[in-house]
Amino acid sequence: MPDRTSPSPTSTRVPVPGAPAPATPAPDRAAGALRLERVTARYGERTALESVDLDVPAGQIVSLLGPSGSGKTTLLRIVAGLERPAAGRLTFDGRDLAAVPVHERGFGLMFQDYALFPHRDVAGNVAFGLRMAGWDAARVRARVADVLALVGLPGAEARAVARLSGGEQQRVALARALAPSPRLLMLDEPMGSLDRSLRDRLPDELRRIFEQLELTVLYVTHDQDEALRVAQRTIVLRDGRVEADAAPESLWARPPTRFTAEFLGFRNVITGVVEGGVARTAWGSLPVAASMAPGPATLVVRPDALRLTADGVIAGVVISRRFRGDHVLLTVDVSPPGAPPLEVEARGAALPDPGEAVRVAVDPDGVVRLPG
Amino acid sequence: MDAARPALSRRAALLLALPPGVFLAVFFAWPVASIVARGLFPAGGFDAGAVLAVWTRPATLDVILFTVALALGATALTLIVGLPAAWVFARFRFPGKSVARALVTVPFVLPTIVVGSAFLALLGPRSPVNALLVAVGGPDAPQVRLDGSTTAIVLASIFYNIAVVIRLVGGLWAHLDPRAEEAARMLGASPWRAFRETTWPLLRPAVLSATSIVLLFTLTSFGVVLLLGAPGQATLEVEIYRQTAVLLDLGAAAALSVLQLVGVFVLLLAHARAQERLAVEQRLRPTADVERTPTTRREKAAVGAILGGLAVLLGLPLLVLVERSFAGSRGYSFAAYQALVEQPRRAGLFVPPAEAIGNSLAFAFATLLIAGSLGLCAALVVGYRRGWLPQTFDALVMLPLGTSAVTVGFGFLIALDSPPLDLRTSVLIIPLAHSLVALPFVVRAVAPVIRSIDPRLREAAAVLGAPPRRSWREIDGPIVARAALVGAMFAFAVSLGEFGATLFIARPDRPTLPIAIYRLLGLPGATNFAQAMALSTVLLILTAVAVLFIERLRGVGPSPF
After folding, report:
1. Which residues does chain B have within 8 Å of residue A4's beta carbon, measured at their own beta carbons?
2. Contact map slice: B 475-494 vs A, CB within 8 A
3. How many Å apart are CA A296 and CA A284, to the nearest integer?
4. pLDDT in tens, B408-437
5. Of residues B139 and A2, which shows the higher confidence score?
6. Which of A93, A334, B528, B550 has a C-alpha 20 to 30 A away from that of B138?
7. What letter does residue B110 receive in the DSSP assignment?
8. What are phi and psi of A321, to 5 degrees?
9. Beta strands in A265-372 (DSSP E)
């Protein structure tokens, strides 16, 4: 582990785009690689994590996605050292973490709801980790100013944390976690209480900061949009187990399980029989990729694969129409009784009203066969 | 599997519990046991029949009935008057609010003797009303007198205890998110229903706390009843005093003390258990988000009426007290104050009354040191540890508060009179007795603050690289230190006002302020009465200064007193 108390003066600087060049060197602490082997966690009878294996190379940004109670926060707390696993091993850069107490791990954790120190001002919060590392006052001041500029709150040092807005608190919490240059940064639902416009903007901003600082990041969220936008790799957790583990693009293109597909918001799931580039389903015969393995299968039709056209293969009647901002969500009742309704994201003018008959075309690239 | 261990290890807790434990054993358990033993085993043998005879005496039953009825009635009335006031202080912004909040607290810390004198001045034979009646109608004019009545005792009890309700309940109320109530309103609940369903359940622990503390104070009230009660009316506490000091029947006094001890301990234990069960973890909001200015006409009227009523109830007795200290036979003057420094010529007083001021301040300072440090130790144990052991410890520490001060005082004289602990002539005996009474206040000021510290803050500090000790020093340290200072100031104020135990152990040539006032009130004549009022005014000012100091120190957040 690099020496926390005496950062080398020749270390890299924190780059701050659009802000004055930082006056102080950041502490020299390269990001590291995290490995979890068969980590299990229990709360009494309930198993929060079941034999989880996870390998995070240095500098990778990983999002942990899952519904509440899936074990995301437990995983963070175990990595942070705030809780002990019931079984399994954790290593960081090859070193076993079992005997390393929380305060010696050198990780950063941004708490859900932030847990800012109410009796300290913004600077007091951000400077905390630096003081623990034994920095002298002048360097602490300079570093605090740099980090606050980095998170977009330049000059906020003397403000009381109770007087900050939600978005500002979030930035202070991030600055506090970033200031000591953690070797691993963990964020627990960091957008939890933010308004929509911030939630739209911040994931990209966060990813920019993570990449700039070349941090290893574990990002916990239950919001699929955030999880896919912020990370280079997304892990879906379900009931304490890893359900899916892939790059966001591939997760989106080919959700590996039904749970993942539904959690990502793919509503059109149907069973059928695949043969020679066609799948026979209750919705009719859908075109699929020629390479798709034949036989009975569960298929996911991604929303971007459906289009309203006069010569579509699926015929049905619109039963509801809901405005969704950039598109209109149509629920289409497909004629054979027992067939699940189809949900189509329609764009453009002159969209059909409920009661109108429509035809829907299917792009074979957007039909994904779920394994099993 | 939680690696975030309690901030205090079992071993450290035991070590910390040791000093207050030893203190309580030597200066509480031992004296009380001595006096109880002397009473129950008069000739070396236990006489159960005699004890039972005392308990079942019609006079005893009368005393118990009166004590319980008075306590229940006074507590209920205090809640009825206090809860609306707590609501106003919690939910509304009004000019002078912080000053008003400090002023409301003053009566609680006032010595019972001052409260007694204030109500004597307001309702007694020398009240301004009666002075006016005499001036108009001559010496034979009809008099209005409420002293020597249950009404006076109840009024004084409300005056004395209302701060407990306002601070304890209002303190929490001011931090409860009003949006919960708004959400209930949106779901179709009437205002009253919304309060009952959302705010009330969260408030209940505080109300229960306030109720049990007020009940405890009214059950054991001594000075107020002694001064304002009718001769035939005695609470258990007064009866114990009468049996020991007047009738010299130690057996009866001991039997009554045992009864009181058991009752109070059961009450305290129930309170501690209920607290743990009822505690709801909740996010407290800064008061600035909660309070608002009254808007509708009805709201303004309600707030105005409640504050006005409060001003009359709390302000009038004190104003009359001060007024009476200046009132002489030939108009207003400083005569009573000048007389305080003169060498008394009459019997009953051995030193100039003003000397009592110096004595009281010295004793109070010693109490601040003793009770402050012991109380901090106990509060750390009670605040950080969970389970039945710390719970019982908590109840034990609170016990002296509910024990007859008379029993404690008399026990001191009996138990601490032989080597190695011959303290009867030592100046330390008074601060030691006062520390016993002050200890619960220190614990109550500090322990809840410790419990309210969000454990995630400690976790955050640990993640940022703070080792356990350092994280305690950085996160808990400043918060605990502030609370401890508040607790120590309470100890100071309690010592200034302690009356019951001091009455027994104070040496005639070293009276404290309350003792000097009591002696002056016992002497005939308008001059002595005015001097008593003047000395009470001095005590009032000293306590008010201590309270204002506490107010300045106190941070945000709910606090029991």
Report:
1. 465
2. 475, 478-479
3. 15
4. 887 888 787 776 667 767 788 899 999 998
5. B139
6. B528
7. S
8. -140, 120
9. 269-275, 278-281, 284-287, 295-301, 306-308, 314-323, 328-334, 342-346, 357-362, 367-370
Query: In the beta sheet, which residues pair with residue A285?
Result: A280
User: Which pair of structure tokens corresponds to residue B136?
Assistant: 């108009």
Query: Are B467 and A180 a contacting pair at CB < 8 A?
Result: no
From chain A, the residues in CB contact with B286 under 8 A are 162
What does the DSSP assignment read for B17-72?
A: HHHHHHHHIIIIIHHHHHHHHHHH-TTSS--HHHHHHHHHSHHHHHHHHHHHHHHH
How far apart are the C-alpha atoms of A144 and A158, rounded to whole Å? 11
Give me the numbers of helices (H) and strands (E) for chain A, helices first please.
8, 20
**Average pLDDT, whole number, for chain A?**
85
Cβ contacts of residue A363 below 8 Å, gap of 6+? A304, A305, A306, A307
Torsion of CA A16, A19, A21, A24, to 10 degrees: -70
Token pair, residue A35, equals 């490995």
% pLDDT > 90, chain B: 10
- List residues bridging with A359 in a β-sheet: A315
Query: Taking Cα atoms as reference points, which of B269, B275, B387 lies closest to residue B14?
Result: B387
Q: Please, where are the H alpha helices in chain A?
A: 72-80, 122-132, 137-150, 166-178, 196-213, 224-230, 248-253, 258-263
Structural Rg of chain A based on CA atoms? 24
* Residue B451 Cα distances to B169, B340, B444, B471, angstroms: 17, 46, 11, 16
Q: Tell me the chain B residues in contact with residue A102 when contact means C-beta distances shorter than 8 Å.
A: 3-4, 459, 462-463
The whole-number pLDDT of residue A139 equals 94
DSSP at B334: S
**In the block, residue with structure tokens 């029947």:** B249
CB atoms under 10 Å from CB of B72, counted, come to: 13
- Cis bond leading into B390, ω under 30°? no
Number of neighbouring beta carbons within 10 Å of residue B499:
25
Do the bridges between strand A233-238 and strand A217-221 make them parallel or antiparallel, or are there none, so unpaired?
unpaired
Question: Over the stretch B283-295, which tens digit does the pLDDT of each residue have?
Answer: 556 566 667 787 7
Nearest to B213 by CA among B277, B271, B154: B271
3-state secondary structure B337-371: HHHCCCCCCCCCCCCCCCHHHHHHHHHHHHHHHHH
Do A83 and B3 make contact, defined as CB atoms within 8 angstroms?
yes
| Structure tokens belonging to residue A130 | 């630096």
Contact pairs from chain A to chain B, CB under 8 Å: 86
Pairing of strands A269-275, A278-281: antiparallel
Q: Which helix (H) or strand (E) holds A218?
A: strand A217-221
Residue B377, CB half-sphere, CA atoms under 13 Å: how many?
20
